[in-house]
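Good morning C.,

I know you're traveling, so I'll keep this short. The sequence:
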Amino acid sequence: MLPAGLAVFTISNLFSMPVLPDVRRESGSALPDNSMPLRCRAEIFSVQMVHALNVPKRIGSIHFLRILIMKKSSKNFNYIPGVEAPTPVPAHDVGIMLAETSSYIQASEARTRYKVSGKGFTVAVLDTGLRTTHVDFAGKVVAQVNFTKDNGGNPNDATDGNGHGTNVGGIIVANALNIGIAPGANIIPVKVLPNRHGGSFDDIYKGLKWVFDNRATYNISVVNLSLGNNINEKSDTPYETHPVKQVIRDLNHAGVAVVIAAGNGYFEHNSEPGMSFPGIIRECISVGAVYDAVEGPFHYKFGASARSSTAGQITPFSQRLPKEISGDCFTDIFAPGAPITSSGATGDRDFSTQHGTSQAAPVTAGVICLMQELYRNIFRALPDSSDFPAFPSIEMLSTWLQNGGIPIFDGDNEDDNVKHTNAWYHAVNAYQALRQVRKYFVRAMAFDDEEKQP
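The tokens, ready to paste straight into the viewer:
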């Protein structure tokens, strides 16, 4: 349990964003309409769900449900409202949304040029679990652990009855029907969020502590947390003694990258710069969301709306915090997060789609895994490696992500209903991030002229 007297804030449904099929339906039905095109379907609100295929009974509106959740959580500061499930996608409707993401960040080119796939590394995903039998994860699940009461409370059964964790995990490591960013990597689902209703920071802490204690056994190099509370922070100072921050700091010092979604509450917080907790923690790599193609419009359930979108445009729901405001606590990187199609939890060959910083975080986690593999490969090839650390620090990884990122300006071409920070950020580019890793070793190895190529 968390230490007595510790003020623990609640996590709201920021993990992935429900999408309205049309702005005219914002005050109408929020139920999925299977007759509509894939990208226009409404997301299913998991608090009302038994499993991802069930159409929930409507109880007023999502805003009403959130009011009920907040009232409940005010009496239990360790309560985390439920995560939203993804929209199940029939196989014949699957488009190229994950392929679009991979293309935008040049993931395939990066893997081919630098001969990396994440092989030999493991990503721990703290979420609603994983459909471990899905063909996308065949031979990849090296362990699983459950800290919830789901699945009979079996600590060794992280089966995902929601779908969120399966979608997130597929973005990182899928290697069959979908191809993730690091398809050679292994995965450990750490179930800290139940299928329905809410979880707790207590379970998240336990999950992170389990990762820390078992990192060497499974060679865990990256942790993904597509979750957070509904607070909009500009600093992590209020959480200095929070056990979650402390264990993330321990993982940071151990060289394990903790990647966390920045939050989806930008519109709800009146376009005020900031990030949710634990994404605000300076020792993590925080990730905001951008679109990866010309598509849309998208109208989100809690009010954010993009009338159109272009590649590299920040999504209207994504929380963001420029370095100029906060110094050590800022949004490290942005990545594609809307819409993303990935593995589905309703069948072993199923797909699902979601929008959110929940999807941007695993894109970044996959890129980091590729960076770590390239670093290891070059380090081992050095005739004298004494001048270099055996493994890159989190600060090094963050710097390479930013230096290799695509500059994006918040306030140039957005066609949405939020105010903008008029600040520069970076969107992840896998090819250039790996090139930054390689450049780090230039002074110790005789590279060819390829380094001069763009």
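Safe travels,
E.
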